[in-house]
Specification:
About 25% of the residues lie in helices and about 25% in strands. The protein is of the alpha/beta class and about 325 residues long. The strands form 4 sheets. Strands 1, 2, 3, 4, 5, 6 and 17 form a 7-stranded mixed sheet that branches. The two termini are about 15 Å apart.
């Protein structure tokens, strides 16, 4: 039985593994996809909002040319090299489906995503670092499940000269609107605020969106409420009144929420924000031996979560000495 099992090999799962190795814990990491699967699913060519030094983990510098904002591809290369340099014990394509309490510790049941084979891992403590990429929020309207309604944006090429309604008031929606407009798509941007300036866009994203609005390459729809999605149009109500827009695609970029399927059966309570309740110092949930870190613990930024996860590992090490 290992001291620790880490669920998730994203940046924070990797940072946890590095620290666990340095304090001498026996551990394994299980990842449902490849390492940093959440970053693999980012839009191709996407640039991070954070500078490179805020993405670095384990004391390894994150090099970028000319102090550029790092891209998805740079980040994937960096984290892969860090995982290899540390020779972390990571089992990829092992999707954890259940955590079973034992008299001492836990049995973690996983399914191989490649072959469907089952495996059971045992550990005294479990640290869940799965982030929030497991479940995208969907609109709760008629037609939200149609095949042309997408909850993730990958790259602009498929939207060339297509009519696209983007729904969302955050950075992901703003950035998608910019890139699709630049790819010659016909873009509407539906937000729930009275003005674009009141949305949750970072300043440089807002600036680029407004520039394309002035150029009539993005059409904003403020105080928008989607009424119904059909195969070739969307009915909505906005500041201008009720409209029916002819569309080829609908991108609903309205946020993500954590997957509760691992923690709820253990009796872990969740707060109003959808995140598991946990001790603010040790990050242990009310279920003794179950810890959370990263976005699942409200630390949404890597530079914050990487420091906090070090404290979590040391709290686990102290627990195991008791």
């Amino acid at each position: 039985m290992d001291n620790l099992l880490i669920v998730g090999a994203g940046p924070i799962g990797l940072a946890a593994g590095i620290e666990a190795k340095r304090v001498g814990l026996s551990f394994q990491t299980l990842e449902a996809g490849t390492i940093c699967q959440s970053l693999v699913e980012y839009p191709i060519g996407m640039r991070f909002y954070s500078p490179a030094d805020e993405l670095a983990i384990g004391g390894y510098p994150f090099p970028t040319p000319h102090d550029e904002k790092p891209t998805r591809e740079m980040a994937l290369t960096y984290y892969r090299k860090v995982a290899s340099a540390e020779n972390l014990p990571i089992r990829t394509y092992q999707r954890v489906v259940r955590i079973e309490p034992l008299a001492q510790g836990f049995a973690v049941h996983a399914v191989c995503a490649l072959h469907g084979t089952l495996a059971v891992y045992r550990a005294r403590c479990v640290l869940v670092c799965t982030g929030i990429w497991g479940r995208a929020r969907r609109l709760r309207v008629e037609g939200a499940e149609l095949p042309h309604v997408l909850t993730r944006y990958d790259e602009p090429m498929r939207f060339w000269r297509k009519r696209v309604l983007i729904v969302g008031s955050g950075n992901s929606a703003g950035e998608a609107a910019i890139r699709l407009a630049d790819a010659d798509a016909h873009v509407w941007l539906a937000v729930d605020q009275p003005r674009l300036e009141q949305c949750k866009f970072r300043p440089f994203i807002l600036r680029e969106v407004l520039l394309r609005v002035d150029e009539k390459r993005i059409t904003p729809l403020t105080e928008a409420h989607i009424l119904c999605i059909q195969r070739d149009c969307v009915d909505l109500r906005c500041t201008a009144g009720v409209e029916s827009l002819p569309v080829d695609f609908v991108l609903t970029l309205i946020g993500l929420e954590p997957d509760r399927s691992l923690l709820e059966p253990l009796g872990v309570p969740f707060g109003d924000d959808g995140k598991p309740i946990h001790d603010p110092d040790t990050y242990e949930t009310p279920v003794r031996g179950i810890f959370v870190a990263g976005a699942l613990s409200q630390d949404g930024f890597i530079y914050v979560a990487r420091e906090r996860v070090r404290l979590v590992i040391h709290a686990i090490a102290r627990r195991l000495q008791e």
